[in-house]
């Protein structure tokens, strides 16, 4: 029987069962390409967003309580903002912002003095859980490895890669009982994972990748979960937002610019409202 075809973008969790070490492989192909469409990101900015998109999919796919997860990196360098938003259905979108020429390749050089913010919106909670931490590390992988180790109080490893076609991640985490299984297991597996090459992350299916890295270990692969990018235009939501601003403010913008333009950075949609649209917003026609 042939194996089922992997989705174009997915999170596939796995377990090194004899060692009590869990992990995940992420590959974003069509989703990552959709996130770049029409953006014109310079290569270094695209790389950072691609890596952050992959690790956000890792974390969203491993949440104990399903919810909507948003990560933001804000900085004072040329790259001022990286944001990735992922629903519990692994519907992912993202946006990056930079000004001027980008010099350097490390996160510190590009973002400068920055911070990482997590927002987790879980159904039933009055307000989202939020966490704000300083950036510790010179790469997206280092920052999130540190964040995961601190938040879950267990050692973790993260390897990321991104190019214009795909972004990918390999994640490992030591579980509490690992040392009772094999006192050297975590160090051995972590050392093996450090040999992974970007082209392997971006080009090999999970079964091949993990078999190559951990040839002597018993790897259990779980069913892959598709990652999608489906954020169609929502003019009604934007209309409600403008109504919330109030007629005077909206008409002032209309008077100054001749139209009201709203751009949704995360979903990359532009909405335009002319005078007739604004009239209909605040004085809808009545039926007689």
UniProtKB/TrEMBL annotation:
One of its GO terms (molecular function) is unfolded protein binding. The keyword Disulfide bond applies. GO terms for cellular component: cytoplasm. InterPro entries: Heat_shock_Hsp33, Heat_shock_Hsp33_C, Heat_shock_Hsp33_N, Hsp33_helix_hairpin_bin_dom_sf. Pfam families: HSP33. This is Molecular chaperone Hsp33. Keywords: Chaperone, Cytoplasm, Disulfide bond, Redox-active center, Zinc. GO terms for biological process: protein refolding. The keyword Isomerase does not apply.
């Amino acid at each position: 029987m042939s194996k089922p075809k992997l989705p174009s973008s997915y999170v596939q969790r796995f377990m090194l069962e004899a060692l009590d070490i869990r992990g995940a492989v992420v590959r974003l192909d069509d989703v990552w390409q959709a996130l770049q469409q029409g953006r014109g990101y310079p290569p270094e900015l695209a790389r950072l967003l691609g890596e952050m998109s992959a690790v956000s999919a890792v974390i969203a796919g491993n949440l104990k309580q399903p919810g909507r997860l948003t990560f933001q990196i804000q900085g004072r360098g040329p790259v001022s903002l990286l944001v990735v938003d992922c629903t519990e259905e692994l519907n992912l979108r993202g946006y990056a912002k930079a000004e001027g020429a980008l010099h350097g390749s490390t996160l510190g050089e590009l973002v400068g003095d920055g911070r990482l913010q997590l927002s987790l919106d879980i159904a039933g909670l009055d307000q989202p859980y939020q966490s704000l931490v300083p950036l510790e590390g010179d790469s997206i992988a280092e920052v999130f490895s540190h964040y995961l180790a601190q938040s879950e109080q267990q050692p973790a490893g993260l390897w990321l890669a991104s190019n214009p076609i795909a972004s990918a991640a390999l994640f490992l985490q030591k579980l509490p009982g690992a040392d009772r299984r094999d006192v050297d297991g975590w160090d051995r597996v972590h050392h093996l994972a450090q040999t992974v090459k970007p082209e392997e992350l971006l080009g090999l299916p999970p079964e091949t990748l993990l078999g190559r890295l951990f040839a002597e270990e018993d790897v259990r692969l779980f069913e892959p979960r598709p990652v999608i990018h489906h954020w169609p235009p929502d003019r009604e939501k934007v209309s409600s937002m403008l109504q919330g601003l109030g007629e005077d403010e909206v008409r002032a913008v209309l008077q100054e610019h001749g139209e009201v333009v709203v751009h949704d950075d995360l979903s990359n949609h532009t909405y335009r409202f002319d005078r007739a649209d604004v009239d209909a917003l605040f004085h809808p026609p009545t039926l007689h």
